[in-house]
Amino acid sequence: MQHFEIVGGTRLKGAIDISGAKNAALPIMAATLLVEGETVLHNVPDLADVRQMQILLSRLGVKVHRDDEGAMHLRVEDEMNAHAEYELVSKMRASVCVMGPLLAKRQRAQVSMPGGCAIGDRPIDLHIRGLESLGADFELANGDVLLRAKKLMGTEIFLGGPFGSSVTATANVMMAATLAQGRTILESAACEPEIVDLAMFLNACGARITGFGTPRITVEGVGALNGTDHRVVPDRIEAGTFMIAGAITNGDVELRGARMEHLQAVTDRLRRVGVIIERGEKGIAVSSARRLEPVQATTQPYPGFPTDLQAQLMTLLCLADGNSMITEKIFPDRFLHVGELNRMGARIRKEGPTAIIEGVKKLVGAPVMASDLRASAALILAGLVAKGTTRVHRVYHIDRGYERIEEKLAGVGAVIRRQAE
Ligand code: UD1
């Protein structure tokens, strides 16, 4: 096992290239199950989750390889298998994204039911409900979701759940509907930029989807989808994490390729805190030179403040002049970082789905334990500013979703090393 050793206290300065979005690349890779011929994907980040999806797709008969320039080539060669097994799904929840494509293209999908994870219960009832509405028969057997349909039929589907829209349920149902007969209307669909990217990919393959980026998506079914070239959208969560890295170190960084329009809620909160954010020539410029103001923030589906940046914002607010409050409305239990940040001198109190963050003058380095992907990022941010040395253990969480994070941070002056335990 490896850990990161971080010596805090340097101001970050320079440019960081933003990678392709994990949460767009994974469903788009799964969508190639629907496609005839070769798909070429550019800007797919090199991440543990992406490699995991490659393994799953190859078990499902897809030939996947990267060329010398890093582009990913995918082609379905064998459609016999439609089973995503426990061993693979339990390692990565996004495996569930193969469900819609398998059902639509192979008339059946058997996908191991993903369990809960560190950030709480994560049901998939909306995925199943949506696919049933398209005409699939559903049963649960041996911990697997079994869906079957000779032909999917377009219909109207309400996809809202107790916490609002669902990103991967929208992806699954939208993908399945591309090959359904007739028109499907998805109400309360997720509006995330990753859903927009997926829809643009599918349309480039010949699908007829409109309304993506809004809560009502319309899909006119087509007979077949054909291979295309597609460039994955830049990762707004990686960009947001580095925005906070710039802010917390009183630094001056440019995030090359980051799209301001995908980060409006984040920019709004960070400006309130006192961070200077400008549209740069090649991306977003972030600097900060003074004490931070406290703020209130609530996570919400896009375009609201993303839950995937909640932990990182909390680290920043630990150093504000006064009390801040963050309410988590997507995953109310997603607070495992609180205890670890408190070990570094933070003063955070949790009350139900809300955390009250009392600003402190400084954080101090400590050994800490990463619990999930974004919580790990929050601990690295804390390490960048803490007095002394911080050791972040269980870095495999971070490797799931951040491409070469230590190289990118070291490139702008951070003192961070990956070490074997
Ligand atoms: C996606 C992202 C993840 C992000 C999350 C919320 C990917 C691969 N992952 O996860 O990084 O944190 O969106 O922005 O894109 N829910 C139900 N029933 C369902 C599905 C979801 O009740 O069938 C609930 C969830 O428990 C949660 C909320 O809906 O409270 C939103 O979850 P969802 O958007 O589905 O998250 P994921 O798509 O799994």
Describe this structure in words.
The protein has 14 helices and 26 strands. The protein starts with a strand and ends with a strand. With 421 residues, the protein is α/β, with parallel strands linked by helices. The relative contact order is 0.16. It has helices spanning 22-31, 48-59, 86-89, 99-106, 125-133, 167-177, 193-204, 236-248, 264-273, 310-317, 337-343, 373-385, 396-401, 405-410; strands at 2-7, 13-17, 35-36, 39-42, 62-66, 72-76, 83-84, 108-112, 137-141, 144-148, 156-158, 183-187, 208-210, 216-220, 225-226, 229-231, 252-256, 276-279, 283-287, 296-298, 323-327, 347-351, 354-358, 367-369, 389-393, 415-420. Helix 1 runs parallel beside helix 2. The model has no long low-confidence stretch (mean pLDDT 96). The chain has 2 domains: 2-19 and 234-420, Enolpyruvate transferase domain (UDP-n-acetylglucosamine1-carboxyvinyl-transferase, Chain, Alpha-beta prism), CATH 3.65.10; 22-231, Enolpyruvate transferase domain (UDP-n-acetylglucosamine1-carboxyvinyl-transferase, Chain, Alpha-beta prism), CATH 3.65.10.
Summarize the structure.
The protein is an alpha/beta fold and 421 residues long.
Structural class: alpha/beta
Q: Supply Rg.
A: 21 Å
Report strand %. Answer: 25-35%
Characterize the overall form: globular
Q: Strand order across the biggest sheet?
A: 24-25-1-26
Q: Helix proportion of residues, in percent?
A: 25-40%
CATH level-3 fold name of the largest domain: UDP-n-acetylglucosamine1-carboxyvinyl-transferase, Chain
What's the CATH first level of the largest domain? Alpha Beta
Biggest beta sheet attributes: 4 strands, mixed
Bound molecules: uridine-diphosphate-N-acetylglucosamine
Helices, by number, come to: 14
Say how many strands there are.
26
